[in-house]
Amino acid sequence: MSAHSQLSSHFFEDLLDSIIVDVASECHRVARLGLDRNFEEEEEELRLSAQARARVADSSNNGETNSKYVVDIFGQTHPAVANEIFECMNCGRSIVAGRCFCSSLQGRKARLKVTRSATAAQNRYTRGSPGSSYSSYSNSTGMNRLSNGASSGVAGEEYSNGSFEEL
Amino acid sequence: MRNSVNRPPTPDAVEDQEKEPTLQEIINIKMIESGEKEKLMELLRERLVECGWKDEMKALCRAYIKKKGTNNVTVDDLVHVITPKGRASIPDSIKTELLLRIRAFLASAAL
Lengths: 167, 111
What we know:
The complex is a heterodimer.
Chain A lengths: L2 H31 L3 H25 L1 H4 L3 E2 L5 E2 L6 E3 L6 E3 L21 H10 L40
Chain B lengths: L12 H5 L5 H12 L1 H15 L2 H16 L6 H14 L3 H17 L3
C-alpha cells in the first residue's frame, strides 16, 4: 500500500472513530435521560399493528368461509356493508347498495359489490357486452342515482374496502 | 562509596519540545486549518445516516443498554461494542468516496 493510501486509510478510520464515539455518546445520553421510552412504545405499537395487519389479511382471505363480514381495528367491516338505498337507472327499482338484480343485464342476474379498484371494474364494464348495463355506485358526495357504465369510483367510506365482482 | 549504578542519562525535556512533527500530524493540522476535516466529517456523517448505518449502530447500543441496564453502561462500553461492527459494516461506496476525497486533499496539499 502506498504512503498516500495508508495515510488516507488512517484519516478515514480517524473520522469513522469520531462518528462512532458520537453515536455511542448520543445513545448513552438518550438512555440516561430516559428519552427512549417513547421509542419503546412506538416499537410496541409497530409490532401490534403488524400483527393486526396480518390478522386482517388472513381474515379477508378466509372471509368467505369464516364469516361474511370481518371488523378491523378501525371498526370498518370487510367487505364493506352497503346499507344505502339507490334507484337503479336501468329498471328504476329501489335497491340496497351492494345488490342489483337488474334483468337488463343480458338476461343474467348479477350481484355487485363495491370495490376499491373502481378503475378495474370500469374497464371490465366498458369491455363487456354493449347491451349490458351494470348498475354502479356513486362517490361519497351523495349521488343517489346509480349510473350506467363506468363506475365513478368508490362510494363513500363504507365502500372503500369492498370488491366488484360479477357472478 | 558505592559505584553508582549504570543508567542512561535523564532525557532532556527541551529536546522533546523541539521534536519534529510526523507527516501524519502535519497533514492533520493542515486538514483542520483548511476546514477540510470538518467537511469530510460532515460528508461521512451524512452518508452513514442515508444508508442506515447510524440506525444500525443505535439499535446495537439500545440492545446492549437494555441487556446490561441503563445505569451499568458507560460510553466506553458502547464504543467497544459498536466499533468492530461499525467498521465492518461501512458500505464500500462510502469508503471509496471518502478515501478519494482524502487523497485529493493530500495531492492538492502537495504532500
